[in-house]
Amino acid sequence: MKEKSKVANSNFNHLSVLTNELIEFLEKLPKSEKKISCMIDATLGGGGHSELVLKTFPEMNVIGIDQDPQAIEAASKKLKNFGQRVKIHHASFSEFNPLEKVEVLFADLGVSSPQIDQASRGFSFQIDGPLDMRMNPSKGIKASELITKLNERDLANIIYKYGEEKLSRRIARRIKNDLSTKGHYTGTLDLAYAISGCYPAKARHGRIHPATRTFQALRIAVNKELDALESLLENGPKWLNPNGLFIIISFHSLEDRMVKNSFSTNEHLVKVTKKPIRAKLTEVSENPRSKSAKLRVARKNNLNY
Question: The domain 123-224 is classified under which CATH number: 2.40.50.100, 1.20.272.10, 3.10.20.740, 1.10.150.170?
Fold first, then answer.
């Protein structure tokens, strides 16, 4: 591996993580397969990972999937010079079914920088925007609708389950009380302020923002992310040829736990990485968000499935 990280920057203004590590595993594919190989990039984003793969392996084709129309637009521009080697689908990977089996199935489960940094998407508790949080802005219910629809108990359960937030009941009570008195939150900062108020004063200025876990939980619930991941883990092996690689990058413990368990117990997979691969210090210095990334790899066994 070269010392300098091959961090890919796209028109989507997103730094792809663990790119060196992805390339290293693809280089281990048998040469006979590499000549006819195809990779499904189940979370195409701005196309950073796919661009590097296409450049590194001239015989590799890519099928890109993403439910975010902004990502599709950015990736289409970024990858247009690769012509017929790239096919892009606007869909969730939970809804996708490839026509042919492939050698590599890859997914980067992290929320992209543009989704976080664009106020209009409603993901950020540091930039004011509407309480939306949908990956696909034309589909599903907004976060504002979700917190209105759920009762206090169900809202607390979501915040605890998906955000692992210990103060979930206090936060849910505050949110529902606010909605009953003022009708709605004006935006993400208004909600983040209310959540922060549920924390003791000395805990409001720690390393992690008080709203982090609750916003994560609402985003996961709005987009049904864990349901989608469960579907990918169940169906992914069916998409792979024998000895094909299943590679997933996750960013929080809930996802990583699901990936770890699936790769360890699925009878059609052989675990390749005993422990998750983490970003090296050089990459973390270039892209701090890579610090929480974990890469796991499994190989499809030789059974016909």
Answer: 1.10.150.170
